[in-house]
Amino acid sequence: MANATAAKVSAIAPRFIRFGDAPGYLGMCRDEFNKTVRPHVQEFPIGKQGVAFDRLELDEWADAYVAAKSIEKASVQDNNRPRSERRGETTWREKRSPASTRKAVSGKSTKSTKGSEFERALELVTGKRQNNT
């Protein structure tokens, strides 16, 4: 029976939130809480050194903050559009790139070279080496 009572107590949100837990309750760091929230809500002592905030007042502050700072977004705008160009069953690999429209063909190059530079380079690579002896 004691465990059932403890479970019910833990399911109830506390009315007072200690300073160490208040920034996390609002989802912000301690510095931002001190700068943005703390000047606008009441705080009160708990025990000898503890400081707490009223959870309901923090909720009211959060509601007012959201109402004042929220940004209207166009309802027609689709921000969740897929980043890739895949649509339906087609995969991205099936789309051909404009650079790969030609097939590779083996054969002689039709590009001209200046003079006989190519022939000299070919001879250096494939030709016989001279002996230095």
Features:
three-stranded antiparallel β-sheet, alpha+beta, 133 residues, 5 helices
Set out the fold topology:
Elements: H1 2-11, E1 16-18, H2 22-25, H3 30-37, E2 43-46, E3 50-54, H4 55-69, H5 117-126
Secondary structure class reads alpha+beta
In spatial order, strands of the major sheet run 1-3-2
| Secondary structure: helix percent | 25-40%
Number of helices: 5
* Average pLDDT number: 78
CA-atom Rg in angstroms = 37 Å
Oligomer: single chain
Number of strands: 3
Overall geometric form? elongated
Distance between the first and last residues' Cα = 106 Å
- Outline the low-pLDDT stretches: none
Major β-sheet annotation: 3 strands, antiparallel
Describe the overall structure.
- This protein is α+β, with helices and mostly antiparallel strands and 133 residues long.
- It has a domain of 55 residues.
- Helix content is 35%, strand content 9%.
- The chain is built from five helices and three strands, in the order H-E-H-H-E-E-H-H.
- A three-stranded antiparallel beta sheet has the order 1-3-2.
- The radius of gyration is 37 Å and the shape is elongated.
- The N and C termini lie far apart (106 Å).
- The mean pLDDT is 78.
